[in-house]
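Handout, page 2. Input:
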Amino acid sequence: MLFRSIREILAKVNANGADAAFVGLGTTVMTNALLERKGAVTGLITTEGFRDLLEIARQIRPHTFDPFVSKPPALVPRQWRLEVRERMAADGSVLTALDDASLESAINRLLDAGVEAIAVCLLNAYANPAHERMIAEALRKRWPHGHVSISTDVLPEFREYERLSSTVVNAYLMPVTRDYFRKFESEVRQLGAPQPPFIMNSGGGIMTPDQAGDRPIDTLFSGPSGGVSGAVHVALRAGYGNIITFDMGGTSTDVCLIQNGKPQLSHSRMINGCPLKAAALDVHTVGAGGSSIATLDAGGLLQVGPHSAGARPGPACYGHGGERATVTDANVVLGRLNPQYLLGGALKIDAALSHRVIEREVAQPKHMNVVDAAASMIALADTSMAHAVRFVSVERGIDPGDFWLVAFGGAGPVHAASVARHLGVAGVLVPPAPGVLCAMGVLVNDLQTDVSRTRMTSEGSPDCVANVHQVFHELDDRARAAFSTEQLSSAAPALQRSVDARYAGQNHELTVEAPAGDFDATALSAVKANFHRAHRELFGYDSPDKPLELVTFRVRARLPVARAQGVDTPSTFTRRVGSLTPAATRKVFFEDSGFVDCPIYERDAFQPGDELRGPAIIEQMDCTTVIPPDFKASVDQQFNLLLTLA
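Output:
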């Protein structure tokens, strides 16, 4: 399906694979494999006495008072979690040497069981990786083509449970990932593309297929990351550094807050009960999308999402057998979406099916008419998405009124104005091609890798500066080495440092920037100032008199690659002859106005400087933009639509 689409795109512009200067991929394959538990049969080798840590987890539980909550099973069953006799102290000293006999026994049992991947995570290996390296070497000798993931390579940081879980997830996904990306690379080669392809990673950069195959944990948020990168690129060109991305697709809506052109980063996430520690853009997701299903709970209250009808069968109006009322069906009933076709005519729409399922699933049980039922579904979906935006802004002490909402995805511009009204944002920016902005995000990024290491030190320690200098020097070398075999650019990678710091006595850290170059007393003072400011912004106070602890050190490396030309040129827009006129008119429902005669415009007819007042519908191949009666729209020099309250 993927390469059929690529070939169709090339055919439409009379090109072939050799004309493709850049091929990039953003994917949710690994996320889906983890959610659906379709990874590899995985074994685990760990320190004696710690085989059950994967199930014991943390004392804190997400549903402490729910007696009926079901806990997802561990990715590695107990019989394949094996122990070896060894022990490292927290300072990296060897308490018990690695026992060769117990290691040999563990390897034999796992290979005899036919496991497809093996994770290795030993206690305190972040402080001294020697024993993990010895186990990895023994495995490679016995199992040269096997999939081995060791915590020292995946996450050389403290907090044993998160390090163990992340290493297991990485191993669990390695066979699926490597096969998928090798096949993708082979297909690109057969296509005739002059350069190898790239993969979008979770942290807002791209990586090679080999890198992605070794570290699938870095691709789990590949899809949303592409959208954020594309939105930042478009917004900065339009002159907006403070934005909130609003990516609404078929199943979910992803939002991310960007200040001064920089997306917020997260180093800890949870997917289906599995805690992960890996650099990722701080994207918050809610289960509200175009295919989200409307249901009535046990008390008869209407709910929208998180369950989705997916793409097949999808919403009822697609005519693929969908029997559930979805958000898309509600938009069709209200006239917000074209009741005859979408995708420029490629997808036929059966509006009668939308009326039928909403009547049966919502209207009749709630004793209301179909229009009111559809409007209620839209109102609930909009409220859910507005809550997601508040989560990344208001709940963190940030006023959304200082930000523009960048709407994209197939359904984002349909709902953006309503969500913006809920939040009081400065306005809505709809890019020229919102339905494919995630793909464009892959095109505008550089190669990127993130490395880290935990090495606790206090600012009062006499060797603090020397220790930090040594750690950053080691991380710089690791980051450069990650690109040494790529031969894609003669330039040296740009390095960006940061450190996780905390006040003495705290059990949580804040990540703050650290200066480049030699780390000295001046650099330490800069880190302290950055931390006090970050603590004050997040918690409302700081304590400069308290000593600082530096815990985990991080380096991000970026290497430029050949950039595809024409990324910023909206080639589908041509010069219009005459004034802007509607292509059609239809009845569209708006909350405060009911059904009104609404002009329908074609997006490619708009030119920079155009202005109009709502109500209006703007249609294009990849999405629809809804402009309510109380909004006005204008077009900037980059062909972006700017929606603001009239």
